[in-house]
Fold:
Amino acid sequence: MIGNDLVLRESKRSIIINGVDLRSFGIELTDYPSILLPPIENRTLTIEGRHGEIPLGYKFAPREFTLSFQVRG
Structure:
């Protein structure tokens, strides 16, 4: 994400929030998951008494993950 959101830099293992690198506060990212995309939920509609399902598309499910930090100082 860009702008006033969270930016993760994999090469240096740092996080920038609202343009401020957390390493400037002595906080270093030590572990993070390799997540490319959130899970996808396929939406369908089943009508009683009819065969099959009607596809309604999909939506992205919430993506939850854990970041580990180490405070240096």
User: Anything to note?
Assistant: The chain has one domain: 6-71. The mean pLDDT is 82.
